[in-house]
Amino acid sequence: MKIPLPNHVDQAVAAAVRAPSPLNTQPWRFVVDRDRIEVWLDRARVLRIADPDAREARLSCGAAVFNLIVSLRSNGKTLSLRVLPRPEEPDLLADLLIDGDRFSSPEERRLAEVVFRRHTNRRPFQDRPVPAWARTTLRAAALVEGGLLELFGRGDRANAVARVLHRAEAAQARNGAFQAEVALWTRRAANAPDGVPAPTKPPSPHGIPAQESFLAAGPEGGEPVLGAILTAAGGPAADLRAGMVLQRVLLTATAAGLATSFVGRPFETPETRIALDRIFADLGRPHTVLRLGYGRPAPMTARRQVDEVMLRRSGVTL
Fold first, then answer.
1. What is the pTM of this model?
2. Out of 107, 127, 133, 237, which could bridge 222 as a Cys pair, Cβ 3.0 to 4.6 Å?
3. What is the pLDDT at residue 207?
4. pLDDT confidence of residue 222
5. Quick one: 96 and 173 in the same domain?
6. Helical packing angle, 55-74 and 106-114, nearest 10°
7. SUPFAM superfamilies given for it (predicted)?
8. CA 26, 74, 306: angle at the middle one, nearest 5?
9. Which residue, among 212, 209, 193, has the nearest Cα to 259 in the 3D structure?
10. Is residue 234 pLDDT above 70, yes or no?
11. From the centroid of its chain, how far is CA 122?
12. Does some domain include residue 187?
């Protein structure tokens, strides 16, 4: 007899799939086994050309893990998290043990409330500065998860990132396999459950602006804030942790009324990834770069249903 899942489990997985992923590939699977939820990398949904080492896919799965945690804690559950990528089982990324009940905090409820509002906004930002209080709040959010958010605008670091972006764009424009992979994940139907709808097709898996508009908010002339997500070290476990840092920052930005998009192209070619490591060597290992500002309304991409991404091993007692 199939035992129905408790509502908080369905809600948690529904929240998890709202995490961002390259080209909306959604490279995750969730396995529920009694009081445990395992998070697995779905290799079939990893971009083989843009992300051959599955680094960005693990980053996305880390963001999904954070959404799981926020949803469960906001529903009054206590959790134990293990970050698990190991050489002998590299695709089992994490598991969460639900081990009791508790009162949720206002911060947990606040973040849970914006999970379904957060989305990548590729449109031009408004000519409106990001205030100091918001920058401080975003930096603090990264620190809570053990990471670093380095904010920067115009200047040497931004110019160096722009040059690396230009090199990545040029390399990817010459790479037919890369272009074919982007086309593979581009959908004609706007309500497709994965991939990127054709009307909002980005030029790369992360939909970054062209080189000439990299440092501009848009026709209004506003200046965006750029932010690098960093950890002390690299590797599979660090990728997952960085995804958790990223998602807390993204949700905090959404709660503050900010829009976000990704500067992902330089992370998608080996040469430019090495160049980014050098640019941020004084701070740590960069995992992604964000563009933050005040945006205008933009459509959200769809997600797969919970029953398409979740498996059950046995009867559930959660």
1. 0.91
2. 127
3. 43
4. 53
5. no
6. 130
7. FMN-dependent nitroreductase-like
8. 30
9. 209
10. yes
11. 15
12. yes
